[in-house]
Sequence to fold (271 residues):
Amino acid sequence: MGVRFAKGHGTENDFVLLPDPDGLLDLTASRVRALCDRRRGIGADGVLRMLHGSDGRPGGDGWFMDYRNADGSVAEMCGNGVRVFARYLVDAGLVPAGEFVIGTRNGPRAVMVSSAGEVTVDMGSAVVQGSSTAIVAGRAFPGLVIDVGNPHLACVTDGQLSDLDLTVPPGHDPVVFPDGVNVEFVRITGADATAMRVHERGVGETRSCGTGTVAAAVAALWAGGRSTGELSVDTRGGRLRVEVEASTTRLTGPAVIVAAGELSDDWWQES
Fold:
Protein backbone atom coordinates (compact mmCIF):
# COMPACT_ATOMS: atom_id res chain seq x y z
CA MET A 1 0.00 0.00 0.00
CA GLY A 2 1.36 3.41 -0.94
CA VAL A 3 1.70 6.55 1.18
CA ARG A 4 -1.39 8.75 1.40
CA PHE A 5 -1.03 12.43 0.55
CA ALA A 6 -3.03 15.57 -0.12
CA LYS A 7 -2.11 18.80 -1.91
CA GLY A 8 -3.27 22.22 -0.80
CA HIS A 9 -2.41 25.90 -0.93
CA GLY A 10 -2.97 29.18 0.90
CA THR A 11 -2.82 32.10 -1.55
CA GLU A 12 -0.78 29.81 -3.86
CA ASN A 13 1.79 28.99 -1.19
CA ASP A 14 1.48 25.25 -1.75
CA PHE A 15 2.14 22.16 0.34
CA VAL A 16 2.12 18.38 0.24
CA LEU A 17 0.29 17.04 3.29
CA LEU A 18 1.22 13.62 4.67
CA PRO A 19 -1.29 12.21 7.18
CA ASP A 20 0.93 10.25 9.59
CA PRO A 21 -0.95 10.17 12.92
CA ASP A 22 1.27 7.53 14.51
CA GLY A 23 4.59 8.91 13.23
CA LEU A 24 5.45 5.82 11.17
CA LEU A 25 6.77 7.52 8.03
CA ASP A 26 10.52 7.84 7.56
CA LEU A 27 10.39 11.38 6.23
CA THR A 28 13.98 11.99 5.17
CA ALA A 29 15.29 15.24 3.69
CA SER A 30 15.73 13.51 0.33
CA ARG A 31 12.08 12.42 0.33
CA VAL A 32 10.97 15.95 1.15
CA ARG A 33 13.04 17.30 -1.76
CA ALA A 34 11.57 14.66 -4.09
CA LEU A 35 8.00 15.42 -3.01
CA CYS A 36 8.49 19.17 -3.54
CA ASP A 37 10.20 18.80 -6.91
CA ARG A 38 7.78 20.08 -9.55
CA ARG A 39 9.09 17.70 -12.22
CA ARG A 40 9.92 14.42 -10.51
CA GLY A 41 7.49 14.71 -7.59
CA ILE A 42 4.20 16.37 -6.71
CA GLY A 43 5.61 19.89 -6.44
CA ALA A 44 5.28 22.21 -3.45
CA ASP A 45 6.91 24.91 -1.36
CA GLY A 46 7.02 22.55 1.61
CA VAL A 47 5.74 19.39 3.28
CA LEU A 48 3.28 19.23 6.19
CA ARG A 49 3.47 15.94 8.07
CA MET A 50 0.40 15.51 10.24
CA LEU A 51 1.14 13.87 13.58
CA HIS A 52 -1.49 12.96 16.18
CA GLY A 53 -0.34 14.66 19.37
CA SER A 54 0.12 18.32 20.22
CA ASP A 55 3.88 18.29 20.84
CA GLY A 56 5.28 16.32 17.91
CA ARG A 57 5.38 13.00 19.77
CA PRO A 58 2.84 10.40 18.62
CA GLY A 59 -0.08 9.90 20.94
CA GLY A 60 -2.20 12.22 23.00
CA ASP A 61 -4.83 14.67 21.90
CA GLY A 62 -4.66 17.20 19.13
CA TRP A 63 -2.51 17.48 16.02
CA PHE A 64 1.08 18.59 15.42
CA MET A 65 2.40 20.18 12.22
CA ASP A 66 5.84 18.80 11.34
CA TYR A 67 6.83 21.35 8.69
CA ARG A 68 9.73 20.92 6.24
CA ASN A 69 11.01 23.43 3.67
CA ALA A 70 11.34 22.32 0.05
CA ASP A 71 15.08 21.72 0.50
CA GLY A 72 14.35 19.22 3.29
CA SER A 73 15.30 21.50 6.18
CA VAL A 74 13.13 21.73 9.28
CA ALA A 75 11.36 25.04 9.96
CA GLU A 76 9.91 26.40 13.18
CA MET A 77 6.69 27.84 11.82
CA CYS A 78 4.67 28.35 8.62
CA GLY A 79 1.60 30.59 8.74
CA ASN A 80 0.02 29.51 5.46
CA GLY A 81 0.96 25.92 6.24
CA VAL A 82 -0.97 26.03 9.52
CA ARG A 83 -4.01 27.36 7.69
CA VAL A 84 -3.86 24.63 5.02
CA PHE A 85 -3.25 22.01 7.75
CA ALA A 86 -6.38 23.23 9.57
CA ARG A 87 -8.44 23.19 6.38
CA TYR A 88 -7.47 19.57 5.75
CA LEU A 89 -8.37 18.49 9.28
CA VAL A 90 -11.86 19.97 8.89
CA ASP A 91 -12.44 18.74 5.33
CA ALA A 92 -11.33 15.22 6.31
CA GLY A 93 -13.73 15.18 9.26
CA LEU A 94 -10.91 14.86 11.79
CA VAL A 95 -11.81 18.10 13.58
CA PRO A 96 -15.10 20.04 13.52
CA ALA A 97 -15.12 23.50 11.94
CA GLY A 98 -14.65 26.36 14.36
CA GLU A 99 -11.85 27.01 16.82
CA PHE A 100 -9.14 24.51 17.75
CA VAL A 101 -5.39 24.36 18.38
CA ILE A 102 -2.54 22.97 16.25
CA GLY A 103 0.89 22.25 17.72
CA THR A 104 4.00 23.63 15.98
CA ARG A 105 7.70 23.79 16.78
CA ASN A 106 7.09 27.38 17.83
CA GLY A 107 4.31 26.40 20.22
CA PRO A 108 0.54 25.92 19.96
CA ARG A 109 -1.37 27.97 17.40
CA ALA A 110 -5.11 28.65 17.75
CA VAL A 111 -7.01 28.52 14.45
CA MET A 112 -10.53 29.35 13.33
CA VAL A 113 -11.90 27.57 10.26
CA SER A 114 -14.99 29.20 8.79
CA SER A 115 -17.62 27.55 6.62
CA ALA A 116 -16.80 30.13 3.93
CA GLY A 117 -13.34 28.66 3.36
CA GLU A 118 -11.27 31.25 5.19
CA VAL A 119 -8.93 30.26 7.99
CA THR A 120 -7.59 32.56 10.72
CA VAL A 121 -4.54 31.63 12.76
CA ASP A 122 -3.23 33.33 15.87
CA MET A 123 0.42 33.79 14.92
CA GLY A 124 1.63 34.96 18.31
CA SER A 125 3.71 38.05 18.81
CA ALA A 126 5.89 39.55 16.09
CA VAL A 127 8.99 40.90 17.79
CA VAL A 128 11.05 43.65 16.16
CA GLN A 129 14.65 42.92 17.07
CA GLY A 130 16.50 45.71 15.27
CA SER A 131 17.49 46.53 11.72
CA SER A 132 19.63 45.05 8.99
CA THR A 133 20.05 45.17 5.22
CA ALA A 134 19.21 42.93 2.29
CA ILE A 135 21.20 43.11 -0.95
CA VAL A 136 19.62 42.50 -4.36
CA ALA A 137 21.73 42.93 -7.51
CA GLY A 138 24.15 45.15 -5.62
CA ARG A 139 21.41 47.40 -4.21
CA ALA A 140 20.94 47.74 -0.46
CA PHE A 141 17.47 47.55 1.08
CA PRO A 142 17.29 48.53 4.76
CA GLY A 143 14.73 46.61 6.77
CA LEU A 144 13.47 45.48 10.16
CA VAL A 145 14.64 42.26 11.79
CA ILE A 146 11.40 40.60 12.91
CA ASP A 147 10.88 37.31 14.75
CA VAL A 148 7.55 35.68 13.85
CA GLY A 149 8.59 32.32 15.26
CA ASN A 150 11.15 32.23 12.44
CA PRO A 151 13.53 34.96 11.24
CA HIS A 152 12.48 37.71 8.84
CA LEU A 153 13.97 40.82 7.30
CA ALA A 154 11.15 43.07 6.08
CA CYS A 155 12.25 45.90 3.80
CA VAL A 156 9.83 48.73 2.96
CA THR A 157 10.65 50.24 -0.42
CA ASP A 158 9.22 52.91 -2.74
CA GLY A 159 10.43 51.02 -5.80
CA GLN A 160 8.41 48.72 -8.02
CA LEU A 161 8.34 45.21 -6.60
CA SER A 162 8.14 43.76 -10.10
CA ASP A 163 11.63 45.09 -10.85
CA LEU A 164 13.31 42.90 -8.21
CA ASP A 165 15.26 39.83 -9.29
CA LEU A 166 14.57 37.21 -6.62
CA THR A 167 15.81 34.22 -8.60
CA VAL A 168 18.77 34.12 -6.20
CA PRO A 169 18.66 34.61 -2.42
CA PRO A 170 19.05 38.24 -1.33
CA GLY A 171 22.30 38.91 0.48
CA HIS A 172 22.08 39.22 4.25
CA ASP A 173 24.31 39.62 7.29
CA PRO A 174 25.22 36.09 8.49
CA VAL A 175 26.03 37.42 11.95
CA VAL A 176 22.45 38.67 12.35
CA PHE A 177 20.95 35.63 10.60
CA PRO A 178 23.25 32.65 11.19
CA ASP A 179 20.53 30.19 10.15
CA GLY A 180 19.35 32.12 7.10
CA VAL A 181 16.38 34.45 6.77
CA ASN A 182 13.11 35.02 4.96
CA VAL A 183 13.27 38.39 3.18
CA GLU A 184 10.20 40.49 2.38
CA PHE A 185 10.11 43.50 0.07
CA VAL A 186 7.16 45.68 1.02
CA ARG A 187 5.42 48.51 -0.83
CA ILE A 188 2.77 50.58 0.97
CA THR A 189 -0.22 50.95 -1.36
CA GLY A 190 -2.78 52.68 0.88
CA ALA A 191 -3.62 53.79 4.40
CA ASP A 192 -4.28 50.20 5.47
CA ALA A 193 -2.95 48.25 2.51
CA THR A 194 0.40 46.97 1.35
CA ALA A 195 1.92 44.57 -1.18
CA MET A 196 4.93 42.30 -0.88
CA ARG A 197 7.22 39.82 -2.54
CA VAL A 198 9.10 37.25 -0.49
CA HIS A 199 12.15 35.03 -0.79
CA GLU A 200 11.95 32.15 1.70
CA ARG A 201 15.04 30.43 3.05
CA GLY A 202 15.24 26.84 1.91
CA VAL A 203 12.64 27.42 -0.82
CA GLY A 204 13.21 30.48 -3.03
CA GLU A 205 10.66 33.08 -4.05
CA THR A 206 7.17 31.89 -3.16
CA ARG A 207 3.77 33.20 -4.20
CA SER A 208 2.96 33.91 -0.56
CA CYS A 209 4.30 33.37 2.96
CA GLY A 210 2.18 33.52 6.10
CA THR A 211 4.84 34.55 8.60
CA GLY A 212 6.31 36.83 5.93
CA THR A 213 2.93 38.51 5.47
CA VAL A 214 2.84 39.25 9.20
CA ALA A 215 6.39 40.63 9.07
CA ALA A 216 5.46 42.78 6.07
CA ALA A 217 2.45 44.19 7.89
CA VAL A 218 4.52 45.01 10.97
CA ALA A 219 7.16 46.77 8.85
CA ALA A 220 4.48 48.77 7.00
CA LEU A 221 2.88 49.83 10.27
CA TRP A 222 6.25 50.88 11.71
CA ALA A 223 6.99 52.89 8.55
CA GLY A 224 3.79 54.84 9.28
CA GLY A 225 4.65 55.41 12.92
CA ARG A 226 2.31 52.73 14.24
CA SER A 227 2.92 49.52 16.15
CA THR A 228 -0.61 48.09 15.95
CA GLY A 229 -3.35 48.01 13.34
CA GLU A 230 -5.07 45.93 10.65
CA LEU A 231 -3.79 45.73 7.08
CA SER A 232 -4.55 43.90 3.87
CA VAL A 233 -1.43 42.45 2.25
CA ASP A 234 -1.38 41.59 -1.44
CA THR A 235 0.98 38.74 -2.24
CA ARG A 236 1.62 37.34 -5.71
CA GLY A 237 -0.82 34.56 -4.85
CA GLY A 238 -3.65 36.62 -3.38
CA ARG A 239 -4.76 38.86 -0.55
CA LEU A 240 -4.40 38.17 3.18
CA ARG A 241 -5.46 40.18 6.22
CA VAL A 242 -3.22 40.79 9.21
CA GLU A 243 -4.20 42.12 12.62
CA VAL A 244 -1.29 43.33 14.74
CA GLU A 245 -1.91 43.84 18.44
CA ALA A 246 0.49 44.56 21.27
CA SER A 247 0.59 40.94 22.41
CA THR A 248 -0.24 38.91 19.30
CA THR A 249 -0.95 38.90 15.57
CA ARG A 250 -3.61 37.16 13.47
CA LEU A 251 -3.50 36.07 9.84
CA THR A 252 -6.66 35.45 7.78
CA GLY A 253 -7.13 34.21 4.24
CA PRO A 254 -8.27 31.36 2.02
CA ALA A 255 -6.97 27.80 2.31
CA VAL A 256 -7.80 25.18 -0.30
CA ILE A 257 -7.31 21.41 -0.56
CA VAL A 258 -6.98 20.65 -4.27
CA ALA A 259 -6.21 16.93 -4.46
CA ALA A 260 -5.72 13.72 -2.51
CA GLY A 261 -4.24 10.40 -3.48
CA GLU A 262 -1.63 7.76 -2.86
CA LEU A 263 2.08 7.83 -3.64
CA SER A 264 3.56 4.82 -5.38
CA ASP A 265 5.36 2.64 -2.86
CA ASP A 266 8.17 2.10 -5.38
CA TRP A 267 8.57 5.87 -5.84
CA TRP A 268 8.63 6.39 -2.05
CA GLN A 269 11.30 3.75 -1.55
CA GLU A 270 13.45 5.04 -4.42
CA SER A 271 13.22 8.62 -3.10
Notes: The mean pLDDT is 95. The CA atoms of residues 192 and 231 lie 5 Å apart. The two ends are 16 Å apart (CA to CA). Residues 210-223 form the longest helix (14 residues).
